[in-house]
Amino acid sequence: MTVDTDAVIKALPLPAVLVDTAGRVAVANAGADALFGIDLTGRHHVAVLRQPDLLDSVDRVLSRGEGAEVRYRVRRGQSDQVFRVTVTPAGEGPPNAALLVFEDATPVEAAGQMRRDFVANVSHELKTPLTAVLGFIETLRSTARDDPQARERFLGIMEREAKRMNRLVSDLLSLSRVEDEERMRPRQTVDLAPLLRRTLATLKAVIEQAGSEIEIIEPGEPLPVPGDPDQLQQVMANLIENALKYGRPRGKVTVRLCLPVQDDALGRPAARIEVEDQGEGIDPIHLPRLTERFYRVDAHRSRSAGGTGLGLAIVKHIVNRHRGRLAIDSKPGEGSRFSILLPAADPDATAA
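The chain above was modelled as a monomer; its predicted structure follows.
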């Protein structure tokens, strides 16, 4: 059976280009034409490929038959698209033709960048309190050795920084568990009203310390949703704690449970949990990034309030696991409202 080389290249699922021994594009499939935005056939490879590393790899194949793998970066709107290009000799050379196959490596590049950013952020978050603790230990061993007042003050700061590190590690472990379970749908049915009351009971000391008023608005009937009670309690606790930390000092925080109504985005009836504060509000420019790990509107205020920058990231992943959605409404000077919409349980389901 005779194999048609042109037909094989055009049938490849990845963008592919064959450069002949004269340096011109002999064959290009539809994916390659779309990638470069022009009909490549007959054009000289130097005028098409342009990027030095890729040109060098093609020249090595054409002159010496040495294959290579290089990166090719293309600008797409506001971001870059990265391809891993395999350049191999083709034909019965020398001289050789060069076959270029473009594999989109953008998701891999993005994942690698996210991992590097995550490691850098965690290192930064841990380094600050660790540096403080080590500095105070050195001071306690030297100049403050015989000063009871300074010793007590430094020990208090060290305790606060150690607790901050402990919160960060706990949130990192929690985030890891939530991400591992994100594709597993909860099997239980949970009534949101008693769950809210349990959440408020666990936050009693935090609420009293903040001196804020908590207003609870409930529909007066069960609100069953398919869910993991521990994770949904964590969602409520995170949102209420945020409202206490960043709302108006000694102001009011309103927690509202709403009966299921049809939600177009979810395509089914959804129960709603709303947490509303009377704080300074958030500039709209920050809203799309609030659920990113370690993203803070006011980093200094967040750290001084004990925040780790992971609370809303945890909320987002839990809501995703429950096939719900998170909505944030806020304007500077008008406070903030965080809404969680969760698919309602079937009417015959029994809540835990």
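Residues 106-141 form the longest helix (36 residues).
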